[in-house]
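hey team, just a heads up i'm posting the complex here instead of the shared drive bc the drive is being weird again. everything in one block, sequence lines first with there labels, then the predicted structure for the whole assembly after. its two chains so it's a bit long, scroll down
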Amino acid sequence: MKALAFIAVILTGWLLMSAVSDFPDWGDPASPANSYRLSQHYITETFPETSVPNMVTAVLADYRGYDTMFETVVIFTAGIAIIGILRRYGPKDESVLKQQATIYKKDDDLIISTTCRLVIPIIQLFALYVVAHGHHSPGGGFQGGVIFGASFILLALSRDLQTAQKWVPENRILKLAGTGIFIYAGFGFLCLALGSNFLDYQILHKIMPATPIEARSHAMLGVEIGVAFTVTAVMFSIYSNLASNGRMKEGL
Amino acid sequence: MIWIFDLFTLIFLVITAIISLHVKDLLSAAMIFGVYSFLMCLLWAQMAAVDVAFTEAAVGAGVSAVFLIATVLRTSRRSSD
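-- predicted structure starts here --
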C-alpha cells in the first residue's frame, strides 16, 4: 500500500512539475493575469475610485465584497462545525481525566506569567492596528482577527482556560461571531436601504460626513471590523474546544 | 542576491516538508510544520505579496501550529506509521 501511495505521489509530482514550465515568468507583464484589462483597472483606478492605497484590501472588501462576506460565513460555519463535533456535555470520563492529570501539571511560572502579562496588551494593540490600518497597509480583518484571537490563546496557554474564558466566555463566542457577520451584512443592507446595490458603499456618503469616494474607504474599515469579530471568536473557540477535549473546563 | 535567498529558502522548504511527514513524533512534526509555514511566509514576502505573507505568518505559523500541538497533546504523541 505504501509503495502504491509513493508511486501516486511521484506521478502527481511529475505531472505538476511538467505543468510548471507552461507558466508565465514571475512578474511577466505579458502574462494573461497581468494583461487582462480587469487587472489594469484595479492597478490604475483603485486609488482614484476608492481612496484606498492598499489595492489588495480594496479588491477584497469592496470590488469582491460579496465574496468576502461569504468567506466570513464559511469561517463562522467552521466554528459551528468544530463546536458541534468536539463540544461534549454530560458526565466526565474518568480515564481521560486521569490521563490529563499525569500529562498536565499546572505550576505557575513567574517568568511565563509576567512575560505574557506584558506582551498580551501589545499583541492586542497591534491586532487592532492591523484591523484599523488594513486599507492603508498590509493587513485587514482576517489577519487582525487571527492575531487578536491568538492573544487570548496565549492567555489560555500561560494561565489556564478559565482565565481566558473570563474575557471570552463560551456563551459569548457565537454571539460575537454572529455579530461580525451582521456588521458585514448590515453594511450591505444599509446600501440597499439607501437605494443602491448590495455592498455598493458609494451611496453611504448620504449618512457619512464624507465624499462618495471616501465613503467606500470608511465602509471598508467597517466591514473589516466585522470580519475581525468573527475570526477572533472562531479562533478562540476552536482552540478552547481542541485544548479542553470539548469540556471547556481544563485547557492545556 | 535574491536568487540565493530563494534557493536556500526553497531547499529548506522541501527539507522541512519531508521531515514533517517522516518524523514519528507528532509534536515535532507539528513544530516543523510551523517552520514550513514560516518559510512559506518568507517566500511570499520576497515575492512582494505582503498581505499573503502576513496571513501565512498569522494563520500558518502562529495559530494553526498551536491548534496542531493542542490536538497532538490531546490524542497520542507517536505516529503509528
